Amino acid sequence: MARGPRPGGGVSISCALAGFLLLTACGVAAPDAADATDDEGGTTGLTSAELDLLTRSGSYVQDERALRRAESELITVCMADKGFPYRAGTSASAPMSFEEQLLGMDERRTRGYGLHAQYVDTPGSGEKREGGEPLPPGMENDAYVARLPEAEAEKYVHALRGNASDRREMRLPDDQRITFSGKGCEAVSREELYGSLDDWAASEHVPQILNNSLTGRVTADPAYTDVMRKWKECMAAKGYSYKDPEDAYRKLKDEYGERGATRDMRKREIEVATDDGTCARQTHVPNTVLSLRRQYANSLPAADKRDLRQLADIWKAAAAQARKLTE
């Protein structure tokens, strides 16, 4: 790829998964479209594998599950070798449909958008985690570290992620910079799967940036306007006045900032998230947005397509390595 990593520090970015404008986790695969060539002899169309990685749909879902499982198991072994416990994550079984995978209705009914978990135990929230409330997926190890004495917690984090001086930085196509562990068990596991940390970081983040660049075209399409109208009508019938799913998430987040993680807020969040998902399912919002994203993907610049092609090869090789290690 033309964009390489840069040594040094920086501020790590994270992805908040809410709504359907910037997120497509699953969908239907498209046929290969790699017949035409660009002025450098490369194909202008995108294959199914490339579209899947770009939009996090189709084959991406099973690949991502295999990679997460393998990474978690590799970290568990590495941490055990250093004398620390680490709980490997579990992978849920595949849902009945791709749309159900994206909507995650079971998760909505139990945790809403996951906002309460972000705000609980924060200063001024007025609430602690309720007894019996499950930890968010993947948070068991964080909870374990939080209970350790400070000195022991530092040793644990060092084994997992190295020191602050071990952080590495990569510049993304939109000029954002991400930082990630350069040493520790996380880094070791990713190197074993992807071959290099640079390849892991690029395949993890660059497709999302390229996918996000399509949002303007997607939201300007008449099909998007129509499906959002239907979603708003469905939500209005339930007593809401949100303009789109992202608006519902954003306003709830603002309310948490004002009121804290109260029981009433948690109940309200679950109700809104469940109704949002129900209306999205009834009006087929996820499949409509996914179809538009895959349609507009071929409008990406040739350089971005070439990067995506290389990243898809890296991703598929890593997924194959993950299955080899865990199956």
What are the defining features of this structure?
4% strand; mainly alpha; 3 strands; globular; 3-stranded antiparallel sheet; 2 domains; disordered N terminus; 57% helix
Q: Stretches where pLDDT falls below 50 for ≥5 residues? A: 2-43, 123-132
**In angstroms, what is the radius of gyration?**
21 Å
Biggest β-sheet description: 3 strands, antiparallel
Number of domains: 2
What proportion of the residues form beta strands (DSSP E)?
A: under 5%
Strand order of the largest sheet: 1-2-3
Tell me the series of helices and strands, N- to C-terminal.
EHHHHHHHEEHHHHHHHH
Q: Could you say which structural class the secondary elements and strand pairing correspond to?
A: mainly alpha
Distance between the termini: 31 Å
Name the helicity range.
55-70%
Query: Could you tell me the mean pLDDT?
Result: 82
> What is the count of helical runs?
15
Strand segment tally: 3
Report the principal-axis shape.
globular
Oligomeric state, counting identical vs distinct chains: single chain
Structural summary, described in words:
With 327 residues, the chain is mostly helical. The protein has 2 domains: 1-13 and 43-89 and 138-211, no CATH class; 97-130 and 214-299, no CATH class. It has helices spanning 48-55, 60-81, 98-103, 105-111, 115-119, 140-146, 150-161, 185-194, 197-212, 215-220, 222-237, 245-259, 263-283, 285-296, 302-326; strands at residues 5-7, 167-171, 177-181. The protein has a 3-stranded antiparallel sheet, covered by helices on one side. α1 crosses α15 (302-326), α11 packs antiparallel against α14 and α12 packs antiparallel against α13 (263-283). The protein is globular and about 55 Å long. The two termini are 31 Å apart. The model is unreliable at 2-43 and 123-132 (pLDDT under 50).
